[in-house]
Amino acid sequence: MPDPIDGVFAALADPTRRAILDRLATGDATAGELAANFPISAQAVSKHLNVLEAAGLIVRTREAQRRWCRIVPAQVRAVSQWAEQYRRLWEERYDALDDYLDRLQQEES
Hints:
With 109 residues, this protein is an alpha+beta fold. 68% of the residues lie in helices and 13% in strands. The protein has helices at 4-12, 15-25, 31-35, 42-54, 73-108; strands spanning 29-30, 58-63, 66-71. It starts with a helix and ends with a helix. One of its GO terms (molecular function) is DNA-binding transcription factor activity.
């Protein structure tokens, strides 16, 4: 069974999908409103929305005749938490490098 985060990263690999998420981070929008921001067809935007929805990054709800797209913060948070472990790793390595460079400077002086 594939890890759900695989689908999230696959969805985020496309710049149009990332731009759609950027737009949705500012508020809900319909597919038509989203399509107006891109030089691609409404069908292409719909396909991108399908990928984002399948990855759990957005949900679509229906209100009367309009279908709203909404970002799912929990799924975005999962990506952030995954990246956080590597941020901490690099901070530890930079701290170790700083210590090493300090020792070298002390030895030279």
